Amino acid sequence: MTTLELARACYRDIDLYAPDRSPCAIDLSDNTNLWGIPPAAELAIRQAPIATVTRYPSLYAPTLKRALADYAGVEPDTVVTGCGSDDVLDSAIRAFAEPGDRIAYPDPSFAMIPIFARMNGLEPVAVPLSQSFDVDADAFLATDARVIYLCSPNNPTGNVMSAEAIERIIANTSGVVILDAAYSEFGGPAEMHRWTEIALRSGRTLISRTMSKAFGLAGLRVGYGIASPALAAEVEKSRGPYKVNAIAERAAVTALREDVAWVNEHVALAIRNRELLSTALATLGLAPLPSASNFVLVPVHNAAETGRRMRQAGVAVRPFPGLPHIGDALRISVGPWEMMETCIDVLGKALAAND
Ligand SMILES: Cc1ncc(COP(=O)(O)O)c(C=O)c1O
Predict the structure, then answer these.
(1) Does residue 300 have a pLDDT over 70?
(2) Is residue 304's pLDDT more than 80?
(3) Which helix (H) or strand (E) holds 297?
(4) Which of 74, 95, 185, 346 could form a disulfide linkage to 315, CB 3.0–4.6 angstroms apart?
(5) pLDDT by residue (tens digit) across 212-245?
(6) What letter does residue 329 receive in the DSSP assignment?
(7) What distance in angstroms lies between residue 152's CA and the mean position of ligand 1's atoms?
(8) Does the C-beta of 210 come closer than 6 Å to ligand 1?
């Protein structure tokens, strides 16, 4: 038996997730908070007692659950935490589907979903988004998938998906709906809260969110899900104990209790700079897609080569070759305006070099 044959069959075709993460002076490739860490969270990390490192963390992060529940306006028993929302998504897929079941997800959307699907022995079924990158409810329901994954605002297109279509899917599927709201803070207060009530009422919907984006804590890996208490409990079993480390729990709780004004202020800046960036891209003759997130997707010819030239010039963006409906595109994270100015300058030169 070869080493490869010793691994589970469903793992043999899985490659390691390997986007280009080599260091770059300005990194606009991963949609994190480019203004930095919230101040109270930073202090909490610097002042952490040694026991935060030498002892095990809590089993299921109850203090964090309470702080997240207050932030989201829900009860703590509807919250499940994880090592990033990646962990919440992976655990949820495992909790709700048997190997061999189908998971339906939008194309294009978050690149990790088909990978998590295969890691859990599921069949990933890509459902094309419409011309305007909205969800086709009938196409999703026709897959008869055990798990339906939706993402709003969607990565990489940046748009919110129609509430009507999402509600129709929730009302008519016999499986579970996972609604990934990693970027919901950037879609405005209505986008932040509109799904919570539906999720809690439906009993078959899990909202996943993260502290990696608006909260600026990506390196700590703190994500969370919101669902009916029964559903949240199943995800927690699948996730297992000790997943949120003690430094992360301490910083995240502090950020939720003391840094929300800082977060809101920087979300507002990101929204303002997103619109300025879109206008500047248009003056380069490009047609960026409207975005409700902290990134902008802009179609360009030869995205891979343009991205490579930009990286060489010190600005990392994320190339997406061959997207449905638009072809090649670059996804640019929004940050402080000086970074955006450098990006626009470097992009203009990279495009000129392509000609
Ligand atoms: C749509 C979406 N969901 C989930 C994640 C995972 O975020 P994290 O694991 O850092 O919470 C990302 C990260 O880029 C994302 O874009």
Answers:
(1) yes
(2) yes
(3) strand 295-299
(4) 346
(5) 999 999 999 999 999 999 999 999 999 999 999 9
(6) E
(7) 12
(8) yes
User: Percent of the chain having pLDDT more than 90?
Assistant: 89
Question: What pLDDT does residue 208 have?
Answer: 97
Q: How confident is the model at residue 355 (pLDDT cuts 50, 70, 90)?
A: confident
> H/E/C letters for each residue in 113-171?
HHHHHHHCCCEEEEEECCCCCCCCHHHHHHCCCCEEEEECCCCCCCCCCCHHHHHHHHH
The mean of the pLDDT values for the chain is: 95
What separation in Å is there between the alpha carbon of 333 and the centre of ligand 1? 13
CB of 214 closer than 6 angstroms to any ligand 1 atom: no
Answer whether 295 contacts ligand 1 (Cβ < 6 A): no
DSSP 293: S
Q: In Å, what is the CA distance from 288 to each residue of 160, 183, 282, 284, 326?
A: 15, 18, 7, 10, 11
Per-residue confidence at 32, pLDDT binned at 50, 70, 90? very high
Q: Cβ distance 113 to 124 under 8 Å?
A: yes
Closest by Cα among 101, 107, 124 to 174: 101
Q: Choose which residue among 110, 115, 178 to substitute to test ligand 1 binding: the one with the highest number of ligand atoms within 8 A of its C-beta.
A: 110
Please tell me the distance from the alpha carbon of residue 204 to that of residue 96, in angstroms, as a whole number: 10
Compute the distance between CA of residue 333 and CA of residue 317 in angstroms, rounded to an integer: 7
User: Helix, strand, coil % (nearest 5) of the chain?
Assistant: 45, 15, 35
Confidence of residue 259 (pLDDT cuts 50, 70, 90): very high
Q: Atom 12 of ligand 1 has which residue's CA nearest to it?
A: 182
Residue 268 pLDDT greater than 70, yes or no: yes
What pTM was estimated for this model as a whole?
A: 0.96
Nearest to 248 by CA among 53, 79, 36: 53
Query: Rounded to 10 degrees, what is the CA torsion of 94, 95, 100, 105?
Result: -70
The one-letter amino acid at 47? Q
